[in-house]
UniProtKB/TrEMBL annotation:
Protein name: Replication restart protein PriA
Cofactor binding remark: Binds 2 zinc ions per subunit.
Organism: Candidatus Comchoanobacter bicostacola
Lineage, broadest ranks: Bacteria, Pseudomonadati, Pseudomonadota, Gammaproteobacteria, Candidatus Comchoanobacterales
Amino-acid positions noted as binding Zn(2+) 2 in the UniProt annotation, renumbered to this chain: C420, C423, C437, C440
Binding site for Zn(2+) 1: C411, C414, C450, C453
Functional description taken from the UniProt entry: Initiates the restart of stalled replication forks, which reloads the replicative helicase on sites other than the origin of replication. Recognizes and binds to abandoned replication forks and remodels them to uncover a helicase loading site. Promotes assembly of the primosome at these replication forks.
Amino acid sequence: MPYYQIAFPNFTQELVYYKVQANTSCLIGYRVEVPFGKKQCIGIVIQKTTDCPLDPTKIKPVKQALDEFPILNTYTIKFLKQIANYYQLPINTLVGLAINQAVRTAPIQFKKQWLKANSEKKPKTKTQIEIYNACLNSANYWELYAQYTAKTLNKMIDENYLSAAQESIKQTTPNLIELSSEQTKVLDNIKSSFIGTHLIWGVTGSGKTEIYTHLIQHVLSQKKHALILVPEIALTSQTANKIALRTGVTPFVIHSQLTPKQRIANTMLIQTTQQPMIILGTRSVLLTNLVNLGIIIIDEEHDDSFRHNSQLFFSARDMAVLKAHQEKIPVILGSATPSLESIHNATSGKYDLHHINHRIHTTLPNIYLIQHQSKQLFSDQALEKINHTLDTKKDVLIFVSRRGWANVRLCLSCNWKARCSSCQALLVAHQDDHLHCHRCRTKIPAPLDCPQCKQSELVQFGYGTQQVASEAEKIWPTNPVYRFDTDQTPSTINQQFKQLEQTTGNIIIGTQMLTKGHDFSKTQMVVCIQADQGLYTDDFRAEENLLAELTQVAGRCGRRQLTGNVYIQAKNPNHPLFQALTQPKNQYTQSLLDMRKQYGLPPYTFLAAIFIRISAKDIPHINQLTLNDYPGCSVLGPIPFPSGNRNHKLCYQITCIAESRQTRANALLSYRTLCQAHAKSNWEISWQIDSHFAQS
Ligand SMILES: Nc1ncnc2c1ncn2[C@@H]1O[C@H](COP(=O)(O)OP(=O)(O)OP(=O)(O)O)[C@@H](O)[C@H]1O
Ligand SMILES: [Zn+2]
């Protein structure tokens, strides 16, 4: 007896068995409406099997598919299973991400529809006329659905104003720019085999994006789709505009801030269009159901944002490499500061490495390291240069690693520091007179006097973006000041990027959001304040990350004719990391790699971490949990991991360091089982493979 195993991403972890009706066509990948308990629910058929461990008489049959075509193809299902297997995640949750919330629950039937206006019947209402006109040359139902209601559209079809049509193929004219000889060499090398993983290690402003546009055009001309991932939503519109300008094809932009309706429309458009498309978005776009993919490009491949860091932990970059391998297409990883893992993979021959050592229009910026201990925001040297830069109508970018007003609020008498009651993180003072927890988003009114000793008023230290913006407005009252951080809405951010182009002598203040990818045309100077702040954390990748961040932010200036200037203010500018910014790029990287090898850390070993969140009263119980080394895998912990504290629960971490991926997978499974057996019912257990949070 054959059975379907069906995913219900909203409410189950496991696949659920249903009977296959005799003489029905195969429904793998289809949405189906099935009885679940007392309700009718929408599930997605993932696989067919003849083995079912349950009592067959209790298994209900699948009635029928909801739509005219499968919502997931067999490639995508196979890919989701591979991710689930590698990261030890429930397939259900991945299916949920792949088809997104909107499609999971939409009871409307999805049809492959192209529509054409009926020349013999003209509508009268304003909306109907608009739709009718949009269909004069045939239009996709889902493109219209993004703007109008399904009711209006269906009524027009029922009343014969619109009828089914063939897909209209849009003619496009590419307008690629001529590449430099260095760029051409990279392009030709990649095109010569057009398969495998390619790492483009090109300095900031070396024209990697232009190489991508040539590669995308190549794929479109082969009638295939191109998928490009960027790390931040803030980068999508700039990249989409550049690609559209060069290829003549407007990319489909997909990210988490689209409305449910836009998401349904986009998901369905991709399913119903044959014409070669460019799909651009952030990490979860990698799970989009596509056929006929010709290339995957991961821009800023080193960026942590490609790691899906919610409960569902996976690296979109690493999985892109897997997907490309599975589909026998090339994957391009591009960065001015590649991750040590990718450099290791490239130098050991697993990836093809392509260097670009020069900028197109100019040279790399001059870097000035400045020792700065004083409480003043800017050193004298930086201040003088900022004044000069603004006088010449150029822009200055000030990089601040923290959003908010001040980093800590504390009492100088008793040393009390404001901490989050829920997760114990230090609270950050904001302009709204509240203290915010950046870890769990709790916020409380800022106390004025010390709640502990009640002896004195509290003081605060450290500069956040809001305070820097306010200072800048005071020092340069006539210059436009723009602040970029995640306290602002995406639309404000987009608007500010547009405004920047219209004004001159701008002061641009921002966090990590500004460090990567942006191609500023007038920014001539970068100032990094409190540059050593990111250095002292418990993540063994801290130095790698800070080096990348500073190199990237330095790379935002002097991208046109004039060489830029970068002022790095730090307490200890003699730290080798800062010195490395002024030296050839691979020397310091090699020393970091050597250190990783010496201490047995990735990429020379394989890490996994288990996180256990418990109530404070269970500390003695977790301390009784002892784990022994597994053959080929050593284990540390459980030890307290304060950065993981959430919702009044304390986080403990167990780190596994294995010799191979397979050993790690086996060891993790075994440790997870032991943890589950020891856990109390209210403990939350999660895990990460290729974790970034292991303590060194
Ligand atoms: N061959 C070329 N001819 C003329 N201009 C070019 C060429 N290649 C790139 N440029 C221009 O140089 C600038 C920097 O290029 P691009 O943004 O592609 O660099 P990038 O390597 O992606 O930089 P980053 O790593 O800093 O994001 C852009 O304005 C781009 O249009
Ligand atoms: Zn908190």
